[in-house]
Amino acid sequence: MIRLEDTSGGAVSAAIASERHRMGSPTTGMVLTLLVISDEEFQSDATSAGVAAARQHPMRIVTLIPRPEGKATRLDAEIMVGGDEGPGEVAVLRLRGELAGHANSVAVPLLLPDTPVVAFWPGAAPAIPSDDLIGRHAQRRITDAAAATDPIAELQIRRSGYLPGDTDLAWARLTPWRAVLASVFDQEVGPVSAITVTGEDSNPSVPLLAAWLGSALGCPVDVQLDAGPGLTSVVLTTDAGPIAVTRPDGRTATLSRPGVPDSTVALQRRDLAALLSEELRRLDPDDCYASALASLPELA
Amino acid sequence: MTNPLRDPLDRRLPRVAGPCGMVLFGVTGDLARKKVMPAIYDLANRGLLPPGFALVGFARRDWADEDFAQIVHDAVREHSRTPFNEDTWRQLSEGIRFVAGDLADPAAYAELSKVVADLDLSRGTNGNHAFYLSIPPGLFPVVLEHLKTSGLATSAPGAWRRVVIEKPFGHDLESAQELNKLVGEVFPSGSVFRIDHYLGKETVQNILAVRFANAMYEPIWNSNYVDNVQITMAEDIGIGGRAGYYDGIGAARDVMQNHLLQLLALTAMEEPLSFSPDDVRAEKEKVLRAIHLPQDIDRHSARGQYAAGWQGGIPVKGYLEEEGISPDSTTETFAALRLDVDNRRWAGVPFYLRTGKRLGRRVTEVAVVFKRAPHLPFASTAVEELGNNAFVFRIQPDEGITVRFGSKVPNTSSIEVRDVTMDFQYGESFVDSSPEAYERLILDVLLGDPPLFPRHEEVELGWRILDPVLDRWSEQGQPDQYVSGGWGPHSQYDMVSLDGCVWRRP
Asked: What's this model's pTM, rounded to 2 decimal places?
């Protein structure tokens, strides 16, 4: 690791290049730049998840940590290139004092040329990510409503601030559930007359799944809250009887269908690196997330 | 029926196979244990198999379901690509069954029918089953016959039955037609999936992506710019324990007829109207039809047999000394051949195919070698080290693309040009996300998605091209001996220098 104190964005960029050169591989196959905007609480996990995701998507990870509290205005950097960590490049930057409000100026020289830029807020996120100083550079902006103090209210903020290119990890967490539910409908099941979605209180994925199912199947959804972990069950009422996916332990689900014996489905909760990898697989706007978000009921 | 939860815009949702099961014949074979079983597990681990997926083993062993499950478990533990996960294994193992019996015993097929029918009820496989024949082709007739008479091959309305077969698809045109007829009598052609694992490789599919998604390459992809095309598949291993299979078959039948001709077709074909299976196949068949053999096969082909030698520091036996090989075997372990494609795009461009065992290293590549620039405004000494430009698809290992071109050598007083290469590595831009070819192909079988499987027309066209060469070679007696660990017999160099070309060292 290289430490640079009281430095500049350009110097950090030069330091990464010279470290690459020293290792004998000055050119790289980086496919994108990931900008992580975070406070000290979330930065370490988010950066590590980025490093792990870089195994699938070799990228430059720039973690920007605004530290407005001090008097001195300066930039401190920690740089890691390649090695055991994975193929990516990592720059963790602390923006002290007044600089905290000008993260933009530090990020610009560090963006890789002519490749996508993704912004990720693992903790608190701006109300309109695309309007943010950093968010403006990114074609994909990832937030995590679950990290907010009131995740359900946060989801409403995501909805009102949505612009194409935004996504939220609450949506990515649902993919395995949605895949199982969709596979149920690969056979004829007839019309669904009611849906019950049960899950952990204050887990934003619960109302999001309910909204998606309700709008896709065109029927009312009842949301029940329990102690989790995460989502615990989805029950679809059909003429032939109920179809249920239940996952009490956060690992293995049981799929029950009328007239078919129950079967087991592995449905583990995934870690941040896996979620981030999924997010980075496609960088165009996620229209399905947009329509699920739009069908969320207003908070009472 | 449309699925209300599958929005075409929803590209996060994986393509998951519908309710179905697979019956595996030949469960103890290498291929079944090293490729098929691990691929099934990897698919389950990626969440791509339906919840009630069932795997039935069929063999002449005195096993219970648990014993077979243990075999699968061990194969998965040893060979799977994704990490072992107890939850996934539990899901998969619930659907594992075993039927003990002889391949020729009608009672065993009656038992199999019972098990399959029971799975439809107990696991909800809904009558959808794929029969994977991982057995020597000599046993196909008996198995297919019994699948037919027992009614296993017949699908109920709304359900499917499919059959999966592995190469070799015959050993000449006649036997290939016979096999196709045999399979065709039992399964309709849309239900027959021929596995050529090469076509499941990401890098092979990437040939089409690179050619038809970019503006840069297609304009020079023709005889105006291309000097020759070299398709090489080299193996560093010998025949190993496959003497029984390999002797009498040889390199041309084993590799050239299928893998190399497929690579040629993908490299030379015109742009398909769309990427639908029929459109892609139509273009591939057009190219295969346009191929013609040289007038003088002897001068434009080369064949060889590996002799004893040292390979990578290890002493190795010659082909004729391998166990199970007759000392006067004339089977070739190296084959090279010039082909021409008779159309406007490729007229006059030789396509060289070569494959061999016990060569320098394991590598498969397609190299498109370009003509030299028409005029070089440099002193002749400056370009002495400049060769032909080349565009190379590296199929395996180290998958990617290499472009070779001339660049100025730094720090020389006058301008000097030398060949340099520019590399794209799959492993660099899309690290470790690349699934095994078998995963992709097995999933496609279960989804009923045929574009990556050669149809019998392609197989027969391949034999039509190769049969005259094989006939000619069979009159020539012993192939040239070549030293193990090198790049094959000398005759291959004569064959290309006739046309003023040289082989790349892959």
From this structure: 0.85
Residues of A in contact with B52 (CB under 8 A): 255, 260, 263
pLDDT of residue B144: 93
Contact between A260 and B16 using a beta-carbon 8 Å cutoff: no
- The domain total for chain B is 2
Interface contact A264-B51, CB threshold 8 A: yes
Do the chains contact at A263 and B124, CB–CB below 8 Å?
Answer: yes
Q: Are residues B310 and B430 in the same domain?
A: yes
- As a whole-number percent, the residues of chain B with pLDDT over 70 amount to 98
**Cα–Cα distance, A269 to A275 (Å, whole number):** 10
Set of chain B residues whose Cβ sits within 8 Å of the Cβ of A182: 3, 5-6, 13, 16
Assess whether B443 and B359 both reside in one domain.
yes
Contacts of B430 in chain A (CB under 8 A): 31, 56-57
Residue B370: give the domain boundaries.
199-497
Fold observed for domain A175-266: Dihydrodipicolinate Reductase; domain 2 (3.30.360)
Q: How far is B235 from chain A (nearest CA, A)?
A: 29
Please count the CA atoms within 13 angstroms of the CA of B95 that sit on its side-chain side.
Answer: 31
Mean pLDDT of chain B: 90
pLDDT at B428: 56
- A225 close to A199: Cβ distance less than 8 angstroms: yes
Which residue numbers of B are catalytic?
Answer: 259
Binary contact (B85, A268; C-beta < 8 A): yes
Chain B residues touching A85 at Cβ < 8 A: none
Looking at the structure, tell me whether residues B355 and B435 fall in a common domain: yes
Let me know if residue B14 belongs to a domain.
no
Q: How far apart are CA B500 and CA B348, in angstroms?
A: 13
Q: Judging by DSSP bridges, how do beta strands A74-81 and A59-67 pair with one another?
A: unpaired
- Does residue B177 fall inside a structural domain? no
Which of A186, A193, A215 would best serve as a mutation to test chain B binding (most B beta carbons within 10 A)? A186
Tens-place pLDDT, residues B73-102: 999 999 998 889 888 999 899 999 999 999
**What integer pLDDT is reported at residue B30 of this predicted model?**
85
Q: Domain extents for chain A? A: 2-168, 175-266
Q: Distance (Å, rounded) from C-alpha B13 to C-alpha B11?
A: 5
Reported in sequence order, the residue ranges of B172-297 that DSSP labels E, i.e. its strands, are 192-195, 226-234, 291-292
- Residue B117 touches chain A, beta carbons under 8 Å: no
SS3 B396: strand
Residues B375 and B421 in one domain: yes
The ipTM of this complex is: 0.83
Within this chain, do residues B268 and B404 fall inside the same structural domain, yes or no? Answer: yes
- The CA distance from B48 to the nearest CA of chain A, in Å, is 9
Inside any domain, residue B223: yes
Residue B218 has pLDDT above 60, yes or no: yes
Q: Kindly list the residues from chain A whose CB atom is less than 8 angstroms away from the CB atom of residue B10.
A: 288
CA angle, residues A271, A276, A277, in degrees to nearest 5: 100
Of B9, B11, B433, the CB nearest to A56: B433
Residue B461 has pLDDT above 70, yes or no: yes
Average pLDDT over residues A175-201: 91
CATH assignment at residue B114: 3.40.50.720
B424 chain-A contacts, CB cut-off 8 A: 29
Q: What is the pLDDT of residue B310?
A: 86
* B107 and B239 housed in the same domain: no
Q: Which of the listed residues B108, B142, B166 is the one where a domain comes to its end?
A: B166
Would you say B404 and B420 are in contact if contact means Cβ atoms under 8 Å apart?
Answer: yes
Residues B257 and B397 occupy one common structural domain: yes
Strand-by-strand arrangement of the A117-121 sheet: A2-4, A74-81, A89-96, A59-67, A32-37, A117-121, A140-143, A166-168
**Radius of gyration, alpha carbons of chain A:** 22
| B323 within a domain of the structure (yes/no) | yes
B180 to chain A, closest Cα gap in Å = 32
Asked if B90 and B203 sit in the same domain, the reply is: no
Average pLDDT over all residues of chain A: 90
* Of residues A236 and A26, more confidently modeled: A236
Whether A288 sits inside 8 A of B433 (CB atoms) is no
Final residue of a domain: which of B117, B145, B166? B166
- Which residue of chain A is at minimal alpha-carbon distance from B48? A179
Q: A24 CA to chain B: closest CA distance, Å? A: 15
Tell me which residue in A29, A31, A263 faces B51 most closely, judged by beta carbons: A263
What percent of chain B clears pLDDT 90, i.e. is strictly above it?
59
